[in-house]
Design a protein that fits this description.
CATH architecture of the largest domain in chain B: Orthogonal Bundle
Number of helices of chain A: 9
Largest sheet of chain A: 8 strands, mixed
Distance between the termini of chain B: 41 Å
Order of helices and strands of chain B: HHHHHHHHH
CATH superfamily of the largest domain in chain B: Dioxygenase LigAB, LigA subunit
Number of strands of chain B: 0
Structural class of chain B: mainly alpha
Largest interface: A-B, 46 and 58 residues
CATH topology of chain A: Protocatechuate 4,5-dioxygenase, Chain B
CATH architecture of chain A: 3-Layer(aba) Sandwich
Number of domains of chain A: 1
Oligomer: heterodimer
Order of helices and strands of chain A: EHHHEEEEHEEHEHEHHHEE
Structural class of chain A: alpha/beta
Number of helices of chain B: 9
Strand content of chain B: under 5%
Strand content of chain A: 15-25%
CATH superfamily of chain A: LigB-like
């Protein structure tokens, strides 16, 4: 059976794309953020996953309001990076893994998650930037990918509890796949940020750090909050933490935190990074 | 059906719910059309004519022409999509977000560099934080207002 080697959660702020492109890793503004990544890259180099299951939210590249699935899974041979209209350079396309995609789809629907399947899919910065951060020097992506896209844009959003269970079902799906493949689950987005209105710039460090801690020790803690509570506590776009919840709950049982980083600000956002492994 | 909206008491915040999404559909559709370079060119060349190609309300078109992002959001825009207007104008996400607060670009950038907007007083309406209605506009614009005619 396939093995889940661990979970990584990271911020996906678009401006990171420009910083990478302009080689600003050592710039004083960016250094505390980029310095978080080498330990995670070392770990990836050690565990060498074959496939990355990417849990993220799209910002209007692949899904617009005309069709807005709550949970969508890619089942394409290739996922393309396209111009999102805000000046981030595109990156080479990502190879899919059709066998895992379809196995996950069958397993998840059997598990009563009625997902949308996508045999063509463009992937935006929420998918591409985390992989660029994790594999900065590779001319070809060393992992195949399966996109799992969550609606964090248009209310009603899935509840935190639903996301938690969805992540557990993803974990069961991967681990029931007859394959020798090694899989890493990557959740992207967050942490606290608000991009709009008079409350723009809202950051809640105390809540973010509590969330990161509880994700390790007591992942059900966050399920006590409604989506409205999470907006109140972490800002209108802080709800992207749902992607972190899903990646975390894909790991069954207890986990250990191997590395984390937290830095304010990147653009309007509190940037977080976490590497988790099952015990 | 009336929607239960427990989130209406968060200051300075609009939730992109069904009502906003219905109201803003064509406004947001116009915004995402700007993902294509040729559309950005056409919009820049003659904004009004480009806007008139979309079944948006006059108020929505005017809000776009005025680059009034708060008004755009009030009229159903979503910041993820509206951000394509700012990008077309060469503005960063931070410049766009800051423009909604009344602060100058520098004031907003400094706020972010110092840890962002505080949680204190900014969670519910009725508290006394800087995002509350009684403290608008923010930054030096608000101070001038108090000292001057307002």
């Amino acid at each position: 059976m396939a093995k889940i080697v661990g979970a990584i959660n990271t911020t996906h702020v678009p401006l990171i794309g420009r910083a990478i492109h302009q080689h600003l890793e050592h710039d004083p503004y960016w250094k505390p953020f980029f310095d978080g990544f080498p330990p995670v890259r070392d770990w990836l180099d050690k565990v060498k996953p074959d496939i990355a299951v990417m849990v993220y939210n799209d910002h209007g590249l692949n899904f617009f309001l005309d069709k807005m699935p709550t949970f969508a899974i890619g089942a394409a041979p290739e996922y393309v990076s396209l111009d999102e209209g805000w000046g981030i350079p595109t990156v080479p396309s990502f190879k899919g893994d059709l066998d895992l995609s379809w196995h996950m789809i069958e397993s998840l629907v059997d598990d009563e998650f009625d997902i949308t399947t996508c045999q063509e899919m463009a992937v935006d910065h929420a998918f591409t930037l985390p992989l660029k951060l994790l594999y900065p020097n590779d001319s070809q992506w060393p992992v195949r990918t399966v996109p799992v896209c969550i609606n964090t844009v248009q209310f009603p959003l899935p509840t935190v509890n639903r996301c938690y269970k969805f992540g557990q079902a993803i974990g069961r799906a991967i681990e029931s796949w007859e394959s020798e493949a090694r899989v890493v689950v990557i959740g992207t987005g967050g942490l606290s940020h608000q991009l709009d209105g008079k409350r723009a710039g809202f950051i809640n460090k105390e809540f973010d750090l509590m969330f990161m801690e509880r994700l390790v020790t007591d992942p059900l803690w966050i399920t006590r909050f409604s989506i409205e509570d999470i907006v109140e506590q972490t800002g209108t776009q802080g709800v992207e933490l749902l992607n972190w919840v899903i990646a975390r709950s894909a790991l069954q049982g207890d986990v250990v935190k191997l590395h984390s980083n937290y830095h304010i600000p990147i653009s309007n956002t509190a940037a977080g990074l976490m590497l988790l492994e099952s015990v | 059906m009336a929607l239960d909206k427990p989130y209406l008491d968060i200051p300075g915040t609009t939730i992109f719910d069904a009502e906003q999404s219905r109201m803003g559909y064509h406004l947001n559709q116009f915004c995402v059309s700007l993902m294509k370079p040729e559309n950005r060119e056409r919009f820049r060349a003659y904004e009004r004519a480009y806007l008139d190609e979309w079944p948006m309300t006059e108020a929505q078109k005017q809000a776009v022409l005025d680059r009034d992002l708060n008004r755009c959001i009030q009229l159903g825009g979503n910041i993820y999509f509206l951000a394509r207007i700012g990008a077309t104008d060469g503005k960063s996400f931070q410049q766009m977000a800051g423009s909604m607060t009344g602060m100058t670009e520098e004031e907003y950038r400094n706020m972010m560099l110092h840890g962002g907007r505080s949680v204190e007083g900014n969670r519910y309406l009725g508290e006394d934080g800087d995002a509350q209605p009684q403290h608008q506009p923010q930054g030096s614009a608000g101070k001038q207002g108090k000292a001057g005619k307002k």
